[in-house]
Fold each of these.
Amino acid sequence: MTTTAGLLDVAALRAEEFPATVGFAYLDAASTGLLPERARRRLEEWGRLRQRPLPSKDTLFSVFDEARTLAARLVNASPEQIALTTNTSYGLNVAARMLPLEPGDIVLLSDKEFPSNVRPWLRLEQEGIVVEIVPLTAQGWPDEDRLVARLADPRVKVLTVSLVQFANGYRVDLARLSAATRASGAYLVVDAIQALGQLPVDLAEVEVDILATGGQKWLIAPWGTGFLYVRRPLIERLVPPFAGWLAFEGTDDFSRLTEYDPTWRHDARRYELITLPFQDFAAFNASVELLLELGPARIEAHLQALHEPLLELATRRGLPLASPRGQSGSGILCLGVDAAGRRLHGALHVAHVHCSLREGALRFSPHVYNAIDDTARAAAALERAL
Ligand SMILES: Cc1ncc(COP(=O)(O)O)c(C=O)c1O
């Protein structure tokens, strides 16, 4: 579903996958993405399936195998490095609980991170771990120079960061943070929920230790889906903080489950807490397949093109941009509105333009189902309300 110029053919995509996108401009993927038809159909099929004798165990569990394979393709990793999870928070809590930290060790993070990447680490303070929150730059972005400089301190054992910041769309220079943590020996943990599905991520090229995501935003998948990536050599070393009943070798054979073999699985399934929602992962698979068909690089270019009407309005009416442009930018575009925020957000809502109000800015996050008429509608409605 691309045009000959390589851009997304939104009209065809809407007709086939997003037929409900009529009469409103939904620009809020950074909150929750819209579900494509192929995923909605899977949910229905699986709902029906549950009303009859179930297919074989192998058929059921092949849904999870496929989900790991697709998740791995999304980040250019291998399926053994993927554990399925129910949200981002699960993965980040696993990371916080299983990394070998001792009292006095420092976990480094930027101020204004989304709380899912802060709470699990603050919880470690009870055990004497120090959480160091690095202030933002004057522009309001994570201070990458400062983060990198602090890695020189041997007490810094973890750097944890969102690849894309939720409140302004800032994209960190992951290659730089990866190189700096490889040099210092600190673990690099990434919250990728605001990135995966809207831009390319290649973990074979840029090494990170742990990455966590949920499926409900840019992956246009059901709530309650997500995954955790753990770098291959770490899997054998990092013991899960809790024990799933299918996390051990030999547990594929349901006829001898009570042998309680103590050997953890040698792949990332050791971090899974089965039973997971089959129906939601069946739909997740359909959603991720669609995104892979469209191609993350093409999606990234599409989103940049969609920003134009809002950027033009911002320039013409002197609205401050609360998002970076260029290399540090992403598909999230925020306009600073301060005290007028609630009123403007309300006016947009009345005009059937759906976006979010975050940290003093209107956050617009278009996705594959949006065309330029959506962001033009948002710009026109905003201008009327200014
Ligand atoms: C950066 C970031 N991380 C995590 C989440 C959500 O975490 P979870 O998937 O655990 O609900 C959000 C948004 O809700 C977010 O913006």
Amino acid sequence: MPSPDRRPHRQPGSSRWPAQPADQATVRRNNLSLVLRHLHDLGPRSRASIAAETGLNKATVSSLVAELVERGLVREVGAERAGSVGRPALILELDGAGLGALGLEVNVDYLAALATDLAGRVLYERRLPYDAIRNGPAAALDALARLAGEALATVTAQGAVPAGVTVAVPGLVDVARGVVTFAPNLRWHGVWIADHLRAALGHPAYPLTVDNDANLSALAEYRVGSDAGTADLVYLTGEVGVGGGVIVDGRLLRGAEGFSGEVGHMPLDPRGPECGCGSRGCWETLVGMTALLRLAADPTDRAVHGAGLDPEERLAEVLRRAEAGDARTLQALDTIGGLLGFGASILVNLFNPRVIVLGGYFARVGRYILDAATAELHQRAIAPNAGGCRVCLSTLGFSAAVRGGAALAAEAVLSDPTIVPRRAPAEPRPAATGGG
Ligand SMILES: [Zn+2]
């Protein structure tokens, strides 16, 4: 039975508990958030259960629930027989069908969008091939704004009000200002993403934030991945670059200035290949997709290195050869796996995660690298049995970052339910489709 001080109230991506003395309105807002999060994290339950589990008194819970119902965030879904006698208790659940949270992503060769309602039901999803380097930041952000406009129109047509937008970018992000400080693989420096998109979307009232793609993917794994709810989790994504997101004790680790998780630039070989960041021998130069392609095929091998191919096509060729048992390809994948485990052992020594989730291309080639990665990890990590760490493959595919973006946008409502307006009492509910 969960106790009032159990973990799920501390959410990755959410702001810290207020430290200053709280006035009445602040206390009310925090308690609304407490009850809403309780239903979000632990599922449907009665008012009495919420009171018992949160430590709030029953009258307070009833008043808070009434307000959350007015704001369309909670609904009653029937009764349960609690015991042998007495009135059956009404069960409450998170509603939120009237709210849309949007995750956007700009990456080296695609743009993506995914919107959910507050309960996580997907309302919109799209991924477009896009050459972000050749088009440059301004054109890329205009294209992203057009995709956002289409997503938001679809959300609105389903009866939901946009509650927030998060943009995922593969690089260092100044989250407070919504600026990409440096994105080596996009070749972007100091791009004011939030300002640009706010203007393009007509200065909306809902929050629009920018965050690192791997951080958001880690959040998605924590929320909806195969190991959802694992409080100590490291997410690694392999693309051209290698990114990471670290969840420690149920919170996304951000660091002093928000730049933590740049595991791809751990300098593992000072005399190694040149990296997009300007340094040498970063982990991503050893295990990123470019390293795999270099190991798997000579530069003259056009089926892998041909000029007009996109990364998907190159990877598909490598996978085809692996499936056919090609010795050089299998050796290349085994080498990548070993180097992946080598770097992962540093993360295990630092964070002692329960699970390392591999995303991006690592997940695609997972069955060819997992054994070597796990063996190297166990050999290198200082703790017995790698501190109980498992290595597993992400099931979220390319949607991990936008999924996490939508989850972070929804966080704003969970942290402060009063940003959603109360409905007029006589007003019928918007036509939320589906449900359940
Ligand atoms: Zn680097």
